[in-house]
Amino acid sequence: MLNLCSDFSGDLADTAGLPLNPLILLALLLLLLAVFFFWRSHFQRVQSGVPDGRIIYSDPQLWGKVEKPFFDADAMLTGKPDYLVKQGDCFIPVEVKSSFSRVEPYGSHVFQLLAYCLLVDRSTGMRPPYGILKYRNRTFAIDYTPAQEEALLDLLTDIRADEGSSYCDRSHNDPARCSRCGFRSICDQKL
User: How many CB atoms lie within 10 A of CB 127?
Assistant: First the structure.
């Protein structure tokens, strides 16, 4: 039987005649740890749906830091996205949902994200080209076009008109949504 290890002295301190310095071993270990943590952070960012770029804002519920919400007096709108990511000269709002999504994002979530796009545009003077909706099972990039902005402003106008009314029709046909509604006990349109 051939023993390939018979000439190995077992002394790790001497390879090819060069002693291994403990500082070199420590540096190699730290380098491997740095590569591992870089890879892990990249993987977590991809999984989170947050786009590449520097995160310059996050919702206080996610990080604990109290941030002032965005406000636009013209639209009488205020709000805070979960994240705001800077990509070059653009700010991208990101809204993270704990629920699963169907094939398409929920309309109310799209309008919520569009509202954040409007607030970012009017607060910073830099119009986001899109926003991100991240569900547990899918991520959607929602374009913030002039047509989308107009649809949002029309919806805000409709909401303002209904605010003064003492009666509003149900806006959906979803029994599950009705069952969780806080007005179910007094609603005459419940499903």
Answer: 15
What's at 14, amino acid-wise?
A: D
Spatial separation of the C-alpha atoms in residues 120 and 84, rounded to whole Å? 9
Residue 167 CB contacts under 8 Å (≥ 6 apart), including other chains:
none
pLDDT 10s digits, 9-35: 444 444 555 566 777 777 777 787 777
Q: CA-to-CA distance for 28 and 35, rounded, in angstroms?
A: 11
The 10s digit of each residue's pLDDT in 58-78 is 554 444 454 678 899 998 899
Three-class secondary structure assignment of the chain: CCCCCCCCCCCCCEECCEECCHHHHHHHHHHHHHHHHHHHHHHHHHHHCCCCCEEEEECHHHHCCCCCCEEECCCCEEECCCEEEEECCEEEEEEECCCCCCCCCCHHHHHHHHHHHHHHHHHHCCCCCEEEEECCCCEEEEECCHHHHHHHHHHHHHHHHHHCCCCCCCCCCCHHHHHCCCCHHHCCCCC
Domains defined for the chain, CATH in brackets: 54-159 (3.90.320.10)
Question: What pTM value is reported for the model?
Answer: 0.63
The residue count of the chain comes to 191
